[in-house]
């Protein structure tokens, strides 16, 4: 998160055990505490995390390759969503005679500290992330 003068990484713990609404509330709380100097809330947890997300898409950056800062294991970089021309492989589509289609695409780059995470495991995680982004309703069941 950018404070305007600096970039900080608040820690949200036990993410795997939380639903999307809880994560959204906790993220909003972190933003509120960071950006509203008049709050009397306790300081945001800025201790060491294991995974960081770097969203530069809000600045129009197409792709980012984040650096993993120890002791973190991985960093996910997200670029801007852009309409992209893709081959049309959907045979169930009524307009399947079209050779191409336009779809929103985002570049997601996972950087891993290979002393902690094997590259094949990182690739499997990124494939699972891709499936969830392409089918967001699957996250609602989790």
Beta strand %: 15-25%
The helix-and-strand class reads alpha+beta
Per DSSP E runs of 2 or more residues, the count of β-strands stands at 5
Order of helices and strands: HEEEEEHH
Largest sheet: 3 strands, mixed
* Whole-angstrom Rg: 18 Å
Number of continuous helical runs: 3
**Mean pLDDT score, rounded?**
82
Apparent shape: globular
What is the helical fraction, as a range of percent?
25-40%
Strands of the widest sheet, in order across it, are 1-2-5
Q: Kindly, what is the distance between the CA atoms of the first and last residues, rounded to a whole number of angstroms?
A: 26 Å
Enumerate the spans where pLDDT stays under 50 for 5 or more consecutive residues.
none
What does this structure look like?
The chain has 3 helices and 5 strands, in the order αβββββαα. Strands 1-2-5 form a 3-stranded mixed sheet. It has a two-stranded antiparallel sheet with strand order 3-4. The mean pLDDT is 82. The two termini are 26 Å apart. It has 142 residues and is an alpha+beta fold.
What's the structural blueprint in terms of helices and strands?
Elements (H helix, E strand, L loop, with lengths): L19 H16 L15 E5 L18 E5 L3 E6 L12 E6 L2 E5 L6 H16 L2 H5 L1
Parallel strand pairs: 1-2
Antiparallel strand pairs: 2-5, 3-4
């Amino acid at each position: 998160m950018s404070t305007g003068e600096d970039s900080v990484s608040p820690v949200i713990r036990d993410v795997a055990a939380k639903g999307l609404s809880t994560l959204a509330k906790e993220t909003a709380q972190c933003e509120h505490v960071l950006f509203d100097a008049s709050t009397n809330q306790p300081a945001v947890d800025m201790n060491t995390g294991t995974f960081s997300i770097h969203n530069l898409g809000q600045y129009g950056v197409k792709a980012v390759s984040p650096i993993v800062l120890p002791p973190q294991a991985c960093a996910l970089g997200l670029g801007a969503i852009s309409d992209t021309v893709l081959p049309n492989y959907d045979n169930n589509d009524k307009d399947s005679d079209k050779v191409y289609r336009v779809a929103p695409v985002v570049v997601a780059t996972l950087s891993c500290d290979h002393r902690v995470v094997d590259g094949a495991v990182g690739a499997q995680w990124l494939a699972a992330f891709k499936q969830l982004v392409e089918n967001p309703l699957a996250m609602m069941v989790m």
